[in-house]
Design brief:
Number of domains of chain A: 3
Structural class of chain A: alpha/beta
CATH architecture of the largest domain in chain A: 3-Layer(aba) Sandwich
Largest interface: A-B, 41 and 41 residues
Number of strands of chain A: 12
CATH class of the largest domain in chain A: Alpha Beta
CATH superfamily of the largest domain in chain A: Periplasmic binding protein-like II
CATH topology of the largest domain in chain A: D-Maltodextrin-Binding Protein, domain 2
Radius of gyration of chain A: 32 Å
Oligomer: homodimer
Strand content of chain A: 15-25%
Number of helices of chain A: 12
Order of helices and strands of chain A: HHHEEHEHEEEEHEHEHEHEEHHH
Shape of chain A: rod-shaped
Helix content of chain A: 40-55%
Chain lengths: 315, 315
DNA sequence: TCTTTGGATAAGAAAAACTGATCCTAGCCA
DNA sequence: TGGCTAGGATCAGTTTTTCTTATCCAAAGA
């Protein structure tokens, strides 16, 4: 096994050869001429043959030096490029998040993340099947629900906030339809997203009600569109207190049965990633940030649920 | 232009990754575990991401580390192999020498060179047109004559000894032919090598003689064969006092006209090489050795010529 | 001849790398 | 359960390396 010459001397020689002199190399490496001179001499002593011919006006490569240079340039270049690529990769945080959670919760907060961690370049995809995007496998961290079935065992999970559900519609719609009791929902238009059939069932089950069998229902590709339709007065949506928090607080959505709040059987919104990625610095930074940012939502849901429980036991 | 990480740290990481642990690396690099640990940490800090996952029973490469390792191994390998190749190359001394000079002068002395410089592996070729040998252009140093026409100007030359010529033949031949004066040569068989026609002419010119026009002449491919034929009593050769020194001293060759010694117009036997090779350590070693070894021959020819000059002016 | 360019060199200062000792953690084994 | 072991991390102190600063020096050009 051939032995490796002193590496810093190799670098000094490579720079000197590339610049055609020690002065150029000393500028590139931020050292003095003397340092380069000593490095080159050391390397020549190590190799046992000269790399430069010393002339009055500088140096000229020997044949051996001429043969050595391209090998070094290429080798160092490969190392530098790969190190750079890996660094870029490490500073790029690839997040995958379903469209509803993304638009209604994550996106409005992301600029705060960028301010807090300006070194990370965040790439978000909301489309698990995107062509032009990145493979979900390649993502560093993803948003999901806590009780997703068949979760691989070495995946780490952190719940950001529980999913608390209650029917909601535009205030005008509520007035027009005169919604007094859950049975009145049969007269309404129910606005679905792909998850909400299970959730409606959980909601009726939770409060011992008959399944809701509306006259009209519409299905939207995600929770955001269903919610927007509800705000426009199209019908009733099973709203997430957190994801629809803004609409509730602005009065754009009203809850006809504010006491009938249940949690989703799929669990709350959570972050998840494989063990190694989970503990990488960039993902650790993101999840700690996300957990902090979700604090008010966790508190809000918690307070609401406890208040209802207290009221229920009091009644 | 991507920046190069600390090179010694890279080497430490590469060794550690290859050995699957810091202890193996510390053995390979002859340092302690702690040194490897610090190097790896330094590199991780520089890159901004971890290369190893630390576990109770040692370390495991991260994805990034796994991607980095083969690049480093390959780059370091290329450097080490090329350095090794160049070192071997530098220790190989390629000498080109005409057959006569080679057999009659150089070869008998070469074992002394090997003893003096055991690190050099000497490759000698006597054939400028050899197929299996090496290109004369690739030779490090060559033997020639000092006054070769059209010599390229940046070629350095060192004359080892002058070429002093006088006719010579076996003592029996001399007796049988009763050689008394140069004119008697016309009765002899003259033994030629490719150079000797010019030299005969120089010899006759030098002493104001008519050109030798022998009844019989034979031509040999090199001076060694012509000399051997002369020793066998075939005819007369224009002998070089140095190259035929052994035969003269052993009495195998006799000079019919010992006072008629001239120097070759082509000059003495010399070493030559391009400027750069000339000053390389291995060639410098060889030529200084060769010059020393040629000392007795220089002295012998010098003494002989001065003696003749003194005698000539006295007469 | 004098100046400029570019490298070589040496002494001392600064930085780095290394060692040796000690600490720490997780698995292992009785 | 607790000691044992393997393998790293860390720290203080020392050794080595490396760098700088300040001269030299040689050759080319003005």
């Amino acid at each position: 096994m051939p032995k490796l010459p002193p590496l810093n001397a190799l670098r000094a020689f490579e720079a000197a050869a590339r610049h055609g002199g020690f002065i150029g190399a000393s500028a590139e490496l931020n050292v003095t001429r003397g340092a380069i001179s000593r490095h080159v001499k050391l390397l020549e002593d190590h190799l046992g043959f000269p790399l430069f011919v010393r002339q009055a006006q500088g140096v000229r490569l020997t044949d051996a030096g001429m043969q050595f240079l391209p090998v070094l340039t290429e080798a160092f270049g490969q190392i530098a490029r790969e190190a750079d690529r890996l660094s870029r990769n490490a500073s790029e945080l690839r997040v995958i998040c379903p469209p509803g959670t993304s638009i209604r919760w994550l996106l409005p907060k992301l600029d705060r993340f960028q301010k807090a961690y300006p070194d990370f370049r965040l790439r978000l995809t909301t489309d698990f099947y995107a062509d032009g995007g990145f493979d979900p496998i390649e993502a560093d961290i993803g948003f999901s629900v806590a009780n997703w079935p068949n979760r691989s065992p070495d995946i780490e999970v952190l719940t950001l906030f529980p999913t608390a559900l209650t029917p909601a519609c535009a205030p005008g719609y509520l007035r027009d339809m005169a919604l007094k009791s859950p049975e009145d929902l049969s007269r309404c238009t129910v606005l679905h997203d792909p998850r909400s059939k299970t959730d409606w069932r959980a909601w009726t089950d939770r409060f011992g009600l008959a399944p809701v069998d509306p006259g009209v229902s519409q299905t939207f590709p995600n929770i955001d569109m269903a919610t927007k339709a509800a705000v426009m007065g199209v019908g009733v949506v099973l709203a997430d207190l957190v994801l629809c928090r803004e609409e509730f607080e602005a009065g754009a959505l009203a809850a006809p049965f504010p006491d009938l709040v249940c949690q989703s059987p799929l669990g709350g919104v959570c972050l998840l990633a494989g063990h190694e990625k989970w503990h990488s610095p960039k993902v650790a930074a993101f999840r700690s940030w996300a957990y902090d940012v979700a604090e008010p939502d966790r508190v809000m849901v918690h307070d609401r649920i406890s208040a209802l429980n207290a009221e229920g036991s009091k009644a």
